[in-house]
Amino acid sequence: METLHREKVAVMGSGSWGTALAVLLAENGHDVALWSYRQEEAEAMAAEGENREFLPGIAIPKSIQITWDCEKALTGRQAVVLATPSSYLRSTLQRFKGHLERGALLINVAKGLEESTLQTLGQVIAQECPEHQVAALSGPSHAEEVSRKIPTTVVASSASRAAAERTQGLFMNEYFRVYTNPDLLGVELGGALKNVIALAAGISDGLGCGDNTKAALMTRGITEIARLGTAMGADFHTFNGLSGIGDLIVTCTSMHSRNRRAGILIGQGKSLTEALGEVHMVVEGVYTAQAAVKFMERYHVEMPITRTVYQVLYEELPIQGVMKNLMEREKKSEDLSWHLVTEHQVRWQEER
Ligand SMILES: NC(=O)c1ccc[n+]([C@@H]2O[C@H](COP(=O)([O-])OP(=O)(O)OC[C@H]3O[C@@H](n4cnc5c(N)ncnc54)[C@H](O)[C@@H]3O)[C@@H](O)[C@H]2O)c1
Ligand SMILES: O=P(O)(O)OC[C@H](O)CO
């Protein structure tokens, strides 16, 4: 592995992902500050040398400066990792943007959509911090595995190639392989929307359905994500990559997945509030489902799995009605090659 260029990095958000990435960045040789939203969270981590609440068992190197003071975290830092849950991204940016260094690169690692504005997280960041370049790091990557150095691959995406490559260089090491991808919209949408499909996969498990059902939900899930994504202008191919199908696979199959675990509890008959309380960590799909339903209406696309999850969460669709909702829909043609459909239709017409 080539020698790393040492940078001063701030990680804003000390949940499981922010903590895991701060540890990785420190191990890569960077000078890292880790900012906590809650003072008591920062104090506990500093005193215990680990994040017992969100990432127990992983030692936090002493070189990491842990703080709840935004100014301290950001002063002199040219790379800033945004690791708060998506619903707090805007409020966190508003709180600290006055302390950002001029030209600092903002790297979002949260996965979600802003329901009130129907903006992607990249758009939220660009709106709040228009002077700064934005990148995203996304892909199949549970904090519990990355922090144990289990081989993981992700993508660094930005409209700016230099920003994507800088992000790649910051994070890449022998157990964390980072590819670049120029399609920021597609990368963000894949990461956000897979969480709703993971809730469906969990519900299916909680209901006692089988592997056939899970495979169907994952395959049809990525199809509906790509359908919305391409309607919004993303590149179809991105959904075949790490931030698309890759992340969908891990989140629908792993017991580390908060979304899948919440889905299992709901499928077993727990209420949403009970499921969220039990999982304790952020379950992004619960919020993304609300935004996704608005997006699908705006772009006139069908997303039956996403809509069914929304109905369970917010419209009291009985859990026993989930499979009926999906299986007894009208007959359809499979549309995996979304961009080739027209070509197929032409060929079929010629054959007649
Ligand atoms: N955990 C993972 O494996 C993982 C992997 C990839 C991406 N992500 C994404 O990273 C983001 C953060 O997830 P996480 O798993 O680290 O969360 P988490 O549930 O582990 O931690 C939540 C954090 O949010 C903080 N918080 C609570 N209220 C807040 C507020 N009002 N403002 C700001 N912060 C507040 C808490 O103090 C805590 O540090 C999510 O978008 C998630 O989808 C997580
Ligand atoms: O645990 P989940 O379901 O929130 O997923 C976390 C990451 O997005 C997995 O890549």
From TrEMBL:
Catalytic EC class: oxidoreductase
Record's subcellular location: Cytoplasm
Keywords: Cytoplasm, Lipid biosynthesis, Lipid metabolism, NAD, NADP, Nucleotide-binding, Oxidoreductase, Phospholipid biosynthesis, Phospholipid metabolism
Classification via InterPro entries: 6-PGluconate_DH-like_C_sf (IPR008927), 6PGD_dom2 (IPR013328), G3P_DH_NAD-dep (IPR006168), G3P_DH_NAD-dep_C (IPR006109), G3P_DH_NAD-dep_N (IPR011128), NAD(P)-bd_dom_sf (IPR036291)
E.C. numbers: 1.1.1.94
Associated pathway: Membrane lipid metabolism; glycerophospholipid metabolism
Family of the protein in this entry: Belongs to the NAD-dependent glycerol-3-phosphate dehydrogenase family.
Name of the protein in question: Glycerol-3-phosphate dehydrogenase [NAD(P)+]
